[in-house]
Structures are given as structure tokens and as C-alpha cells.
Write a structure and sequence with these properties.
Elements lengths: L1 H17 L7 H9 L2 H29 L1 H21 L3 H18 L2 H12 L6 H29 L1 H19 L15 H14 L1 H11 L2 H17 L2 H20 L1 H8 L1 H22 L4 H6 L5 H15 L5 H30 L1 H11 L1 H17 L4
Helix pairs in contact: 1-7, 1-8, 2-3, 3-4, 3-5, 3-17, 4-5, 4-6, 4-8, 7-8, 7-12, 7-16, 9-10, 10-17, 10-19, 11-17, 11-18, 12-16, 13-14, 13-16, 14-16, 14-18, 14-19, 17-18
Amino acid sequence: MKLDKNIRLFNLFSFFSSLDFYVPIKVVYFHQVTNSYSTASIIISAVWIFQALLEVPTGIFSDMIGRKKTIVLGALCAVLAYFLYAAGHDFWIFILGSFFEGGSRSFFSGNNNAYLHNLLSDDQKEAEYHHYYGKLNSAMGVAGFAAALGSGLILGWSLGLFMWINLIPQVAAFILSLMLVEIKHQEKIDTNILGHLKEAIQGIKGNINLRYLSLSQILGGGGLAAYEYQAAVYAAVWPTWAIGIARAIQEGGVIPSFYFAGKIIDKLGMFRVMVISWFTATLGNILAALAQSVFSPIFIMLSLPLYGADDTAKQKILQQEFTERQRATIASLNSFGNSITFSIALYLTGLIANKYGPFMALLATQVFLIPSDYYQFKFLARLRKAKKFS
């Protein structure tokens, strides 16, 4: 009963943290404020650059100090970031907001998944991680659906009030973070920061499965850039008020695959789930870019039927490969690299969008994903050969 209560509270925190009207249309929002795709891309890229700079310190902080304290700091940074986005109209105020948003993301990345794993391991239920992770992300998916549905409507109604309204659920998430239980049996790290970081890097180098998966994540920044420019594609062919509806359908479409992720993985196996998900996502983005019509958003909306199960499978494998001492730190190292590649990919796609339009920018993101795809398929081939996953 105690585990269920703690899981429900964490799910509720994650719901409000994900009820973020800004995320689905951030490129559109900053483009309207600055009248430039490249400037919008710089502001958004700054978030990921700051996240990259803070990833390793916050990951080590999580392993050394505790998961709950890390979540509280992340939630506080989110409140500060969106307050600055709402109150400021100057480029450098937006950049300061980017700093706090990047800090929030760095505190959450790695740590929150580790927190869930530790909650389960305290109750000897870590083998059921993929079921709980799927349910958690389905709750976050419902929040993402609601946020996407409202984002275009709120932005179309009032640009000035948009970020103030967006601040409300982040304040609720911060309050809930204070109520979370601390992990009882988390192994505290007693080494120095540099020694802990060196140990994490050696862990990646010494585990070939972890190395391939980490390289795939690190080089996968093009995937995040694609998500950003999908909204720009919507805006190019549909009215502003309809962007949120399109995003809501897209977000809502992944909720079932998260909610039933455990059953889907048990039925199809991790290999099939990851291959099918890669194929549909890549094909959907390419068709959307090439169509350059009112049908492009439909191709995007239909591209992610197994995204939730795919993400859950990867997280399950990573959590199995991590050591307890490095559970958050290695995840933060992966996110550090991913933030760097995303920032580069997003800036380049911003330049492409300014010159050739958002459709070509979306197509370019699939080219940027090729190195990530290479290591993902090396990992899958290895697992298939070993018959570890069907």
C-alpha cells in the first residue's frame, strides 16, 4: 500500500510537471515573439546547451545527495524559467529563462527514472519497472495531450497571457515535489566528483550494450529537433488555433503505447518494438516533409504508434545495464551528449527553415539522425544474434 501511495504521488507530480502548454509549440511561440526562426532556435538551443553544461554535476548530485532533493530543485528551476519567459520581452531575459529551464531538465534527466527504479527496488519490485514506467509515462502523456490541445487555443487567444497561464501547473508540481518521499536505501556515493565521473565513463566503455545504447542516445539530437519543427510544419499549413489540436492528437496517440507498454513488450519483444517504432517514425517524418501540404500533419500524427513502448523498452534495458552507484550519472552523461547534438541540429535546422522553409528543416532532422540509427541497429543486431530479446 505504501508503494502504491508513493507511486501515485510521483505520478501526480509528473502529470503537473508535464502539463506544459509551452512545449508543443515553443518554436511557434518564440517565432511570433521574435519574428525569426533562427532566433527562436537560438533561445531553445540555449536551454539544451545549459542543460548539457549542468547534466553531469546534477547527475552526480543525485547519486551523492538524493533523488528527492534533486527533483525539488528541478521543479523550482522550472517555475523560475517560466516566470522569466512570462515577465520578460528582452532576448537576454529569455536566455536567462533558458538557463533555468536547462537546469530544470538537467535535474530531472536520469534522476527521475532512477527515483522510480529506487522506489520499486525498496519494495523488491524492480523487475516490474517497465510496467510502472509505462503507466507513469501514460499519465505524463495525458498531461501532454491536454497541454497540446490547449496550447494553440491559448496562444491564439492571448500571446501576452500564454506563459503566465503556463506557470500555474509548474507551481503545482513544485508544491507536490516537496511532498515526495525520499529513497530509503539509495546507496550514497562517498568518492569525489572527478573520481565518480571517471568511474561512470569507464562503466560505459566496459559495457558494450551500454556503449551502443549510450551512443545512440548521445547522437539522437536530430529526433528532438524533428519534434520542434513538426510544430512549424503544422503552422505552415494549418491555422494557429488548429496547431494545438494536431499536437494533442499526436500526444494522445502515444498514450496507449505507454499505458500498455509492459504488455506490448511482453507480447512482441523489445527487438520488434524498437524496429517497428523506428520505421514508422522515420517514414512519417519523411512523408510529411516531402508532401508539403495540408496532409503533412497527418503523416506526423500517424508516425508514433509504438513510441511509448519503444521508449519504455530502451529505459528498461538501460536500467538493467546501469550499476546502482552510477544510475543517474551515466544517464546524465548520455543526456549531456544528446543536448549538445540537439543544440547543433536545432540551430542548423533553424537556418534551413529560414532559407528553405520548415518542411526542408524537418527532412534535415532525419539526416542528422543517421549516426544515432547506426548505433541503435548495431545494438539491436547484437541482441538479436544473442537471442536475448525476440
